[in-house]
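Archive maintenance. Older records in this collection stored only the sequence; we are now back-filling the structure field for every entry so that each record is complete. The fields below show one back-filled record exactly as it appears after the update. Entries are processed alphabetically, and Hydantoinase/oxoprolinase family protein is next in the queue.

ARCHIVE ENTRY
Title: Hydantoinase/oxoprolinase family protein
Organism field: Mesorhizobium argentiipisi
Length field: 692
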Amino acid sequence: MDGAIAADEVQNEADWKVGVDIGGTFIDFCALEARSGRVASLKVLTTPEDPGAELMTGLTLLAEREGFDSARVTRFVHGTTIGINTIIQRKGASLALFTNAGFEDVIELARLRMPDMYSLFCSRPEPLISRDMVFGIPARMRADGSESRAPDMSAVERAVAAAKASGAQGIIVSFLHSWRNPAQEASVKATIARLAPDVFVFTSAEVWPVIREYERSSTAILNGYVHPRVSGYLTALEKRLRSRGVPARPMLTKSNGGLMNAAEGKRSCVNMLLSGTASGVIGASWLARQAGEDKILTLDIGGTSADFALIIGGEAQFGTGELIGEFPLYIPSVSVSSIGVGGGSIASVDAQGVLRVGPESAGSAPGPACYGRGGDRATVTDAMVVCGWLGHSEMAYGQLRIDTGLAQRAVGELAARLGRTIEQTAQAILDIAVSEMFVEVEKLASRAGVDLRDFTLMPFGGGGPMLGAFLARELGMKRVMAPRRPGVVSALGGLVADLRGDFIRTIFSPLSAASLPDIREAFEALAGEGRHWLAAQGHDAAAELNLFCDMRYVGQSYEIEVVLSPQWLADGDMAAIAQAFHLTHQQLYDFHDPDGDIELVNIRLSAIGAGPKLSFPQTDEVNAPANPARQLPVYTGLGVETVDLHDRQTLMPGSTFHGPAVVVQEDTTFAIPAGAQARVDRHLNLLLTFPE
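Back-filled structure field:
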């Protein structure tokens, strides 16, 4: 490993910080020995039949290969896809919903939107709670928070009995206007706990107390749906770490790019649904800042999907309403767009004779055909092998050996149906994969209002470097930056992430001097919650409090997020708040109304406790051409060409070469198309530039 020193020199004083990320095919490890600066990384195939077992395997391999000492771990951060996979696979808990009588259709009506308004065959997803498991409770809270009718507890008793008889494992309580006053939900929850102590209960106000009953109910339902599996997984994780003698309290990556402790994760499950994808973006943001890159488009390709995000000013972008499978999540999350195209995505020929790629994936078991683990259907990875870009070294730190014959056999079956050569079929699979990613990225750029020609593409994940340069070329992007260890960027994200808690109050009032006391009171309350939350996470240093408001012009249906300065509240500077809203509206929609009345809907606060200040070694550049290890034949779409193969370990800072080329390393393979100029920078990033 670069920057390595003998393990026994630091063993007695070792300070290991470990980031772990579980994906659909591999679990990634990034371990930093802080005193020496030595970085150890690893990939291990996942074990879907026993989630978490691969963690123990990885820790054992780190100990054997890198001198890792479990007893010297001072920071352990873990990201997992178990929550989102539970929703996608619909393997969550059986739930009941208690809501106001007369509003039992709230989750079926949703927002009356179709997923694809232009499709005649489009249908909305089946709710996670079926209609017969929704129970109306006579109760009513007014919009101002005063009680119109107290909950009928006899109706609650009957609903609890019916829910249990129907097999409900948990109950979600979501009443109208609980964002203003959660008392009715709390009293019903207490009654349920008394009547059915074996049934878990969540209220919408405790999960995310936001205005609009569908959004609040949907978020609480997602939290409850994954609760048993997430809680059970985290309990097993804690036991496994204790059995290995890991003293550090495990932390979890959150959808908002921050961290929380595992104990909280068992209840606040909804906050970790996008933990893996968010970790990748946070890791990429850190790498971008280290390299001085201001604008980045991230491309994270795993076995199942490709994820895209924008980094602007060195910072990840955030939003609400991210899709979790087929359902929107209304808590702040790192903004990530995903498409079902990954290294394990299966290629097929449909009934009309059209070649398609994904979204079905071979996963880790059986995996792509070339893995030799029982898979026999052609995947994107198999297409890379057939073309010659992949298969020239061991993969995944020696976990896999590529079988070219199996890949050719799988792709050959499709080639026979299409009447093309095996190489042409493999190239078509790659072209389709890139074109599908192209469409998704263009939509992301349009929504954000950015010109991707001003951005640098950062590919990571096991599959990102395989296809990233081809995508950048199609998008007209001029630069690509591949980190030293692209395969474990998500695990790195856990290492460098901060503690981050998000808190909200719905105020729903005009922006005026008369509303200033309410805004100040809400801010102070949220600031207190944030500091208390950080203390509960074990953070005793200074806290960073970031303030946001969701605002809109009076008459608009939906609001926009506006960044505020707490000083404006202290000074009573309402003009500054209004100006910030006008400017944000102008940036998003290219117009604003300086005379329009403004409405403030939510005030939100992010409490941040800074993580460890880490840095990786830098090396002076040598400015010399790189010497290839050997040459190999690759089918580039135009025919078979002879290209150079480079070993990433031998590329020194300042090394230069040009494409077409292949760069092999422990965790991935970098395919570099013709015309690209490559250079290694002092951070060991591999930079590509394309001519004008």
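Update note: The chain has 18 helices and 36 strands. Residues 1-11 have pLDDT under 50 and may be disordered.
Entry marked complete.
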